[in-house]
Structure formats: structure tokens, C-alpha cells
Write a structure and sequence with these properties.
alpha/beta; Rossmann fold; Alpha-Beta Plaits; 2 domains; six-stranded mixed beta sheet; four-stranded antiparallel beta sheet; binds adenosine-5'-diphosphate; binds magnesium ion
Length: 307
């Protein structure tokens, strides 16, 4: 597979899927046991120096010096990359401006919040103007507001520099909102590769859930026989129906229920998300602290109330 120049590409997968390992291989930190890869045309196994010159990496684990100021952290990095003093000063201003940390440049990093640290690390990753930037879980553990702010910075830097960005995440909403294409990875293997839109569309429409226990098989059969219905699955206390156009199907569904005397406690509808895509592929949830969609929250509430 290949990633296009200027693309914002996502690697989405649960913890332990192998995202960090893949980034480590592509950034020449770990040698692959098998297979090969090229970054900016250079082989990651043979031309390590050439690869390192054209990439920037923001690691999953924080790697700033707490006892230095924000600006000093950047300056140190610039020196490592052999950037001359004048260029360094100019670029430090520029990247600090991009991540809105100009005001705090002279403060020690130990006084920064988690979100500020992450922004400084992204700024540092950009200082030597890499063609390709790797971001490993850029918003891990941050609150929703800070995550959104970082998303905006990521989109900004893609627009202003045309940098190719490869980010890993286990937050499905992050992959969905930011990335033009994503690879879903699980157990060290890519199990799907496409645009988020195409992945969701492949599921076959909207997801309707009906609160009903042990539904009448005739009722289920009637729903299954509707041509627009892509999938019906009977679960413990509910029925899940994937249908082309959920809004217009609800009235019909309720009239089928009426015909079969099927007691429906509640109905909910939502658009499929990448979690549904993942479940469809693996039978498991990405799970974790992933932020749920507002629709999900309502669904959970209704389910509890029904018990
Ligand atoms: N392609 C692979 N083949 C074999 N083992 C792998 C592969 N990718 C990752 N691993 C192993 O899986 C574990 C978790 O990988 P990691 O990259 O930290 O996952 P993630 O960043 O997705 O949470 C590590 O012990 C790593 O050595
Ligand atoms: Mg990781």
C-alpha cells in the first residue's frame, strides 16, 4: 500500500494493535523482522539517515524537557538538526504561532498543561520542515475540548505546509473527522483500508435499534424480507436493523410491529460510525475511553431505563 503526498492518513486500531510499532518501523527506530517500506523514496532499513532527515515524529510518550522553557526545547531540537541560528529563530516563532504558544514560550514546560505539551511537541516535530510527520496518538488522554483544539492545529498545519501526516489513534471519531483515508489495524495487520465515508457506507445504511425481547420470528422475517434492509440481528433485548433510509423506514417498521403485536419499548436510529465498522470486521469493540457520539449516550440511557 502507499500513502500520497499531502495526505492526512490515519492508522486506527485498539490498544496493542501494532500502531506504535508500525510508526517505529517507518521512522527507523525499530528494524522490521520481515517486509520493507520506503519513506520519501528511501528504504527504512538501508537509508536510515535519509529517512530521518525527511520525517518528524511526535511520540506517544511525552519527550519534552520539563526543566527547559518551551522555546528552549524547540531551540535544542533545531540545533540537533543543524538549523542555523537565524532560521531557527524564525521558525521557532512560526511554529509557536501555529500552535498558539507564543505567550508561554518563556515558561518552563513543567508549568504546561497536557494539551500545551502536546502542542509544543507537534511544533517541535515541524521545526525542521519535515515532508512527512508521524503523530502517535496525538490526543491520548486529553479532554474533549483540548482534543478538538489539537485537531484544528493538525488540519492547519496540513493546509499551511502541505505536510504528509500519518497519525495513529484508537479514537474512532478522531480518525473519522481528520483523516482522508484510514487503515484499520488489528493484531499487527491492516484489515481495512479506505475513506471513512466508504467504510461506513459499506455497512449498508442507517442503524435502527428496537427495544424488544424475544421478538416474534414472523415479525423478524417480515423485516428481513424488505429489500432496503441490509441486515437484521436479534440480540438479547433488542433488534438491530441496518436499512438504507432509516427515517422513512421507522413508520413502516412500527406498522409491521403493530400487525404482529410486537411490544416495542423504544426505538433509536443513528448513522453508522467507525466503531460499527470495526465491530463488523472483528466482532469486537475498539472499546476504551473512546468518546461516544451523543446519539450513543441517548441509546445507553434508554437501555438502562428499560431494565
Ligand atoms: N506486525 C507485528 N507483528 C508482530 N508483533 C507486533 C506487530 N505489531 C506490533 N506487535 C507487538 O504488539 C505489541 C503492541 O504493539 P504497539 O505497537 O505498542 O500497539 P499500539 O500502539 O497499537 O497500542 C508490541 O509488543 C509489539 O511488539
Ligand atoms: Mg501505541
Amino acid at each position: 500500500m502507499g500513502i500520497e503526498q499531502g495526505e492526512l492518513f490515519g492508522l486506527l486500531g485498539p490498544n496493542g494493535a501494532g500502531k506504535t510499532t508500525l510508526i517505529s518501523v517507518l521512522s527507523t527506530i525499530v528494524r522490521p523482522t520481515t517486509g520493507h517500506a520506503t519513506v520519501c523514496g528511501h528504504d527504512v532499513g538501508r537509508d536510515q539517515d535519509a529517512v530521518r532527515k525527511c520525517i518528524g515524529v511526535v511520540f506517544q510518550d511525552p519527550s519534552l524537557d520539563d526543566e527547559l522553557t518551551g522555546e528552549e526545547n524547540l531551540d535544542f531540537h533545531g540545533r540537533l538538526y543543524g538549523i542555523d541560528a537565524e532560521t531557527r529563530a524564525r521558525r521557532i516563532d512560526e511554529v509557536l504561532d501555529l500552535v498558539e504558544l507564543i505567550d508561554r514560550r518563556h515558561d518552563l514546560v513543567k508549568t504546561y498543561s497536557g494539551g500545551m505539551r502536546r502542542r509544543l511537541e507537534i511544533a517541535r516535530g515541524l521545526l525542521h520542515r519535515p515532508e512527512v510527520l508521524f503523530l502517535d496518538e496525538p490526543t491520548l488522554g486529553l479532554d474533549p475540548q483540548t482534543r478538538r483544539r489539537i485537531w484544528n492545529h493538525i488540519l492547519d498545519l496540513k493546509d499551511s505546509y502541505g505536510t504528509t501526516i500519518i497519525l495513529t489513534t484508537h479514537y474512532m471519531d478522531e480518525a473519522d473527522q481528520l483523516c482522508s483515508r484510514i487503515a484499520i489495524i488489528d493484531h499487527g495487520k491492516i484489515i481495512a483500508l479506505d475513506t471513512p465515508e466508504a467504510m461506513k457506507a459499506a455497512l449498508g445504511g442507517d442503524l435502527l435499534e428496537l427495544g424488544i425481547a424475544d421478538p416474534d420470528p414472523e415479525f423478524v422475517k417480515t423485516i428481513r424480507s424488505v429489500p432496503e434492509v441490509a441486515q437484521v440481528s436479534v440480540q438479547e433485548d433488542k433488534l438491530m436493523v441496518t436499512v438504507e433510509n432509516g427515517e422513512s423506514f421507522i413508520p413502516r417498521l412500527l406498522s409491521y410491529a403493530h400487525d404482529h403485536d410486537a411490544p416495542i419499548g423504544w426505538v433509536s436510529m443513528r448513522k453508522p460510525n467507525l466503531e460499527d465498522v470495526f465491530i463488523n470486521l472483528t466482532g469486537r469493540e475498539i472499546r476504551d475511553e473512546a468518546i461516544k457520539e451523543p446519539g450513543d449516550r441517548i441509546r445507553i440511557f434508554l437501555r438502562r431505563k428499560n431494565k
